[in-house]
Amino acid sequence: xxxxxxxxxxxxxxxxxxxxxxxxxxxxxxxxxxxxxxxxxxxxxxxxxxxxxxxxxxxxxxxxxxxxxxxxxxxxxxxxxxxxxxxxxxxxxxxxxxxxxxxxxxxxxxxxxxxxxxxxxxxxxxxxxxxxxxxxxxxxxxxxxxxxxxxxxxxxxxxxxxxxxxxxxxxxxxxxxxxxxxxxxxxxxxxxxxxxxxxxxxxxxxxxxxxxxxxxxxxxxxxxxxxxxxxxxxxxxxxxxxxxxxxxxxxxxxxxxxxxxxxxxxxxxxxxxxxxxxxxxxxxxxxxxxxxxxxxxxxxxxxxxxxxxxxxxxxxxxxxxxxxxxxxxxxxxxxxxxxxxxxxxxxxxxxxx
Length: 353
Ligand code: SF4
Description:
The chain is of the alpha/beta class and 353 residues long. The protein is 27% helix and 22% strand.
């Protein structure tokens, strides 16, 4: 697999006013703080973390919708274009996004078929007949039948709308798909169908996919690797199976412990699972006033004296698994919190969506 997307030490700062007083000086909010990652062709990377940790800002930077304050991002070996010129448009053709709210992502005044065809018209790809053929193929690949072509977004169900958003993203045949919480606005039963469809499309088209979600069960189902973010930094990264069964960072362990068991907390053979909910004390800190040392230390159940002053460096564990925590010095993960019994994701059923 070749490296398609590469970010090296990228940061994004915003100037914000910490108080509403007229003469208050702006302060710097580090939404994304020196993040490096790679995404290969055909690979799916999950980005998880609490709201406001910088996931969506990072995703927008990676596809050139938001310029980085520092660092470098390349796509297929070429730097991401900062200016919205012809090169930027050509690069954007290969990087498409699926948004959280399908109704907001679609134009309410356009019929479904016109919505999906629009990117081909904007990019001036093919003649009218070729555009129509590509549009029909994209709609067919997501299970939208001809009977829906003439409808408007408000005449569709939530699941159908998200399928149309996916068709609109896929009609340009991109190499990279960025999905920002693509199922969080859908009913639970529809979520499983959309996730299974995304997974099938990703495999059949060998797409690289960045999948942002706070639902760890979905991430485990669809992602090869997972990166966990906290206050603008990646604090743990590695194979999804490894991280979700043997998290090394106390924050990751707490996130996993909050995932509910579909069978009421029993193991697969019926015994009580050895998992205990880890309750974090306190609210996430204000990103303008990030704590010194390890940013997680005010909430960490394993906090030590050095955590308050020393920022933990990235430590490689086994294989691709890395963590930024003083508990680890190239050792095996210390925390073991199994996550089992995944029953959320059922077989796709396009008729019900
Ligand atoms: Fe907890 Fe210290 Fe590790 Fe931070 S570095 S996660 S405070 S143990």
